[in-house]
Every structure is written in C-alpha cells, then in structure tokens.
Design a protein that fits this description.
mainly alpha, Sodium/glucose cotransporter, two-stranded antiparallel ribbon, 2 strands, 1% strand, membrane, Solute carrier family 5 member 12, cell membrane, sodium
C-alpha cells in the first residue's frame, strides 16, 4: 500500500482547553447551585427523583441529551460518510419508539419500578469512545479526559441529585446542538454551499436512502433500520432505568408523556444535524479519504479530524466541538450514575432496612452516587478492549436490552404469563441474543453485506509514487463455520428483536405449560389491553383475551367518578369519594379524574 503525506492538522491550543474546561466548570456549578438551593430538603426522594414534581420541559431536554451521547456525535457522521444517509431512517424508528414508550410502557412503569442490569458496561463505552477518538486526533489526553468525565459527573450528581442532572442535561443539549451547527455552517461554506454538498453526496451514492431489500443479513436497509432499530431503541427507551426514572420524576403521567413527545423533537434535531455533518464531511474528503490514506487509525476519528482540519485557523472553536461531544458523554454518565443509585437504594437498601431515617437515606444515596461514579469510570478500561466502540454500543444495547424488553412486554401485555415463564423467557432471550451477538463479533458479516461505499484517495499526495488508491474490500476470514454466513451475519440491529421475541415466545410457552396466571388477581391498571385494537368488533373475544383481568369494571368506575368530580371541583381521592370496594381502591389509586391522569405517588402503594 502506498504511503501518503498527511496534511498538517493542528492539535489543541490554549483557547480550546479554555472553552472545553468551561463546560466542566458550568456543569459542576449547576450541581453546587442545587446543593445550596435544596439544602433544606434532605430527603432521599428529593435527591433521587426530584421530589416527583418535575415538569415536562427540562425532562424532555434531559432525555434527549442523555441518549444522544458522544457515540451519536462521533459515530453517526462517520456512518453517513462511509455507508450513506440511510441512517436518517432512524427518524421513523424514533417516532415508533416514543409512541410505544408513551402509550404502552410508561402508563405501567409510572406506577411501578424497573431495574436495569447493563447500565455500567454501556456507560463505560460512552466514556471511553469519545476519549479515544479525541485523544488520537486532537492530542487531548485519553485517561485524563476519562478521569475528568467521571469526577465531574460524580461531583454534580452527588451534590445536586436528579434536579442537578436534569438541568445540567438541558444546558449540555444546547451545547451539543451549538457544536453541530458550528461544524455544519463552517463545513458547508468551505465546500461551496449546500447545493454543492448535496451534489457531491448524490454523486457518491450517499443519498440512496430507501433500500427495501428484505435480506436480514444486510447491515442497513429500510427494514433493518425501521424494524430492528425500533426494537433496539425500545430497549434503550422503553425499559431503561434512566428513562423511566426521569418520567416518574414528573408530577403527573400527562407531564411524563408530554416530556417523551417533546423529546422526540430533540431526537429528530440531533439526528438531522449528525446526518448532514456526515454529508458535509464526505463532500470535503470525497477525493482524499483520511481513513484509507491512514491519516487516522479508525473511522470513529473522522469527525474530530474533520473539525480540527476546518477550524485550524480558528482557536477555541475545536474546543466547542469537543465540548459538544463530551456534553453527550456527561449527560449519559450522569443519568446512569443517578439511575443506578436509585435502583440500588429503592430495591435493595430500602427493602432491607425500612426504618432508615431520611438523613441517613440521603447520605447513603450520595454514597451510592460516588460508588457508581467510580465503577462507571473504571468500566472505560474494559471498554478499551471492545474494538469498534460505536457499533459495539448499539450491539450491547440490543443484546441486553432486547431480553429485558421481552420480559416487561410479557408482563404488561400478557396477564397469563407466570413467574416461571418470565424467568425461562428471560434466560432464553439472553441466550439467543448473546449467542448471535458473540458470533457476529467473532465472525463478521461477509463484505457483500456490510461493505462501505467507495472512498477515494485520488487527490491525496503520495510520499513515494504517483499511484492513486481506492478503498479495497476486506478479505474473508478463512475456515468460517456454516452459521458464520447466515445466523452470525444478521444485522446488528436485529439483536434486540431476537432477544425480545425469544423471551416473549418462550415465556408464553412455559406459562401455558406450567399453568397460566389468573387475571382476576391482577390490577387492571398494570396491564395494557392491546388486544382491544384488533378485536374492537367483539366484546366476547376481547374479554377472552383479557385472561380474566377486570378492565370493564375499572372503566365503568372511572366513568361514574368523572361527573361527580367535575361537579364538586375537588381533587379528593376517587375511591373514598364513591365508597368503592377494597379491590378497586387498590386498582385506581392515584387517579385524578379532573386531569384524566395519574398523580405521582409511591410505588409501594401498589405492592
């Protein structure tokens, strides 16, 4: 392979460090602000879930910032640069995910709890990915940035609790969008304007978005992104502790749903910014690809390399982009630390020591934040062994989130499922997902299924010859087993679907084989009767599929209550107002008929 002369790209200068440091300073200051402001509210409830009185606006910003991590900031433009703009189809996936989360999962989780088992590992990837990419391109110290991220996140999580995390996320969301827009404006102007960028992208086949090939082995098609992407992101949004904790911190279910739908606008905004950055980057490097020419060592470094290239004469602006990337990292890590502390305290410590004082509970919660801050930062060392961190992050979400999604779907949609089916289904889903995922890591898909679009080095300067080089297709690994080109070559976006469906189907089979649950024992508010959508013409069929759950009685009780509440203009408890029986009191506790929504109450009320 010929050697190319790499163009001189400047490293970080003083002003870049100043801008970057300002992000950490402001984030830490928000934690100090809430520590001082809320110093008289020293309850664990205030610390962990913001007193369950948050409104939809800051929660929407926080959700977007937390899940559009540095993996998105660095990875999505690189994906578009190499594979084309089909990534924009996640626009549809995000829409379906938010609808399912808001209408199917949230109403149940709002009145219960959830535990996430893979938060620490993913957080380690989120910390390590941007640190590695930025270290090798900008000269920014790798482990220094890892340590700084962990220390700052732990600091403002421990001092300010969830309110500090949420408002810091809102600030970091603004920084993230500002960084993207700065890159877009500068990159577009340097490459002849938006029309020229669009023309270059079209000429390089980067705008071939709609590929309706149903082959599940193809890495990105319409179906893999819309179907597989929906399952993957449902595992991230629908049953993720960080998401649910933010939603239950809202003062009502209506505010929680509104936060999710407003967050969808943020997801669309960040996605479109990332996709257009990838197209601008391709226009800039269409005839001298820095990855093929070995100016960088991994595709994850394309975006920071591009930023350092186009802003070489503008000190301080590269620091803004680094702040943009680390805004995603800070928000994700902070969300994970707070979520893990909440799960541990609510599900383990509080259950084992129910008589703890509020002061002691708050100190334990803060101690858990410090503990998980150290663990999440330490996981970056483990993430350094995973190789391609961008795809690895979604793969881990799929392999772990898919079975969890199947487990909770089993419980929410199928009242007949029993604990044996749930346990057996979860084990089956995990086994299937990890079998497929591990096989795909060992035996990557054939080049024909995942080969990037053509990248050229035609205009790169050769060090020792005048020969030009185009991207060469990778060679197949020798002695591949039979499953390597079939089962192990499935698109990584289907890992979640495999785990989810494997869990749900196995769980149902085991439940029916061992004796299904009786629906009469299950409160209707904890089950979503999705069969009503498909059996609206037959009440008898609906009741059969309800498996004995008394949905009709709950609806009738609520209809009776609404006129009485409207007439009296009060917000008294529905069950005491109408002297309903003990069973119905258990079923509709927390319901506010005047707002047609559920108030945020303690989940212990339902146990």
């Amino acid at each position: 392979m010929p050697n190319f002369v790499a163009p001189e790209v400047k490293k970080f200068v003083t002003w870049d460090y100043v801008v970057f440091a300002a992000l950490f300073l402001i984030s830490a200051s928000i934690g100090v602000f809430f520590a001082v402001k809320e110093r008289k509210k020293k309850t664990s409830k205030e610390f962990l879930v913001g007193g369950k009185q948050m409104t939809c606006g800051p929660i929407a910003f926080s959700l977007t910032s937390s899940f559009m991590s540095a993996v998105t900031v660095l990875g999505t433009p690189s994906e578009v640069y190499r594979y084309g703009a089909s990534f924009v189809l996640f626009f549809l996936s995000y829409t379906l995910v938010i609808i399912f989360t808001a209408e199917l999962y949230l109403p149940v989780f709002y009145r219960s709890g959830i535990t996430s088992t893979y938060e620490i590992l993913y957080t380690g990837i989120v910390v390590y990915a941007p640190s590695l990419a930025l270290n090798q391109v900008t000269g920014f110290d790798l482990w220094g940035s890892v340590a700084a991220t962990g220390i700052v996140c732990t600091f403002y999580c421990t001092l300010g609790g969830l309110k500090a995390v949420v408002w810091t996320d809102a600030f970091q969301m603004i920084v993230m969008v500002a960084g993207f827009m700065t890159v877009l404006i500068r990159g577009t102007s340097l490459n002849g304007g938006s029309a020229k960028v669009w023309e270059d992208a079209h000429g390089g086949s980067r705008l071939d978005i709609f590929d309706f090939d149903v082959d599940p082995l193809r890495r990105h098609t319409f179906w893999t992104i819309v179907i597989g992407g929906t399952f993957t992101w449902l595992g991230i949004y629908g049953v993720n502790q960080s998401t649910i904790q933010r939603c239950i911190s809202c003062k009502s279910e209506k505010h929680a749903k509104l936060a999710l739908y407003l967050n969808l606008l943020g997801l669309w905004t960040v996605l479109m910014c990332a996709v257009f950055c990838g197209l601008v980057m391709y226009s800039h490097y269409k005839s001298c690809d820095p990855w093929t020419a070995a100016f960088i060592s991994a595709p994850d470094q394309l975006m920071p390399y591009f930023v350092m290239d186009i802003f070489s004469s503008m000190p301080g602006v590269p620091g803004l982009f680094v702040a943009c990337a680390f805004s995603g990292t800070l928000s994700t890590v902070a969300a994970s630390i707070n979520a893990l502390a909440t799960v541990t305290f609510e599900d383990l410590i509080k259950k084992g020591f129910p008589d703890l004082s509020e002061k002691m509970s708050t100190w334990i919660s803060k101690g858990l934040c410090v503990l998980y801050g150290v663990l999440c930062t330490s996981m970056a060392a483990a993430a350094s062994l995973l190789g391609g961190v961008v795809q690895a992050s979604l793969s881990i979400h799929g392999m772990c989130g898919g079975p969890m999604l199947g487990l909770f779907t089993l419980g929410i949609v199928f009242p007949c499922a029993n604990w044996k089916g749930a346990l057996g289904g979860l084990l089956a889903g995990i086994s299937l997902a990890f079998w497929t995922g591990t096989g795909s890591f060992i035996y990557p898909a054939p080049p024909a299924k995942a080969i990037p679009l053509q990248l050229s080095t035609l205009n790169c300067t050769l060090a020792n010859s005048t020969e030009a080089l185009a991207t060469a297709a990778p060679t197949l690994a020798p002695e591949r087993p039979l499953l390597a080109d079939t089962w192990y070559s499935l698109s990584y976006l289907y890992f979640s679907a495999i785990g989810c469906l494997g869990c749900a189907i196995t769980g149902l089979l085991i439940s029916f084989a061992t004796g299904p649950n009786k629906g009469e024992d299950i409160p209707p508010v904890l089950i979503k009767p999705v069969c009503n959508l498909f059996c609206f013409w037959s009440r008898r069929l609906r009741m059969l599929l309800w498996c004995g759950v008394q949905h009709d009685s709950l609806e009738m009780d609520l209809e009776k209550q609404q006129p009485k509440v409207a007439a009296s203009k009060t917000r008294t408890d529905y069950t005491s107002k109408n002297n309903t029986n003990k069973e119905n009191n258990h079923q509709i506790r927390g319901y506010n008929s005047e707002e047609n929504s559920y108030a945020n109450i303690s989940r212990e009320s339902y146990l």
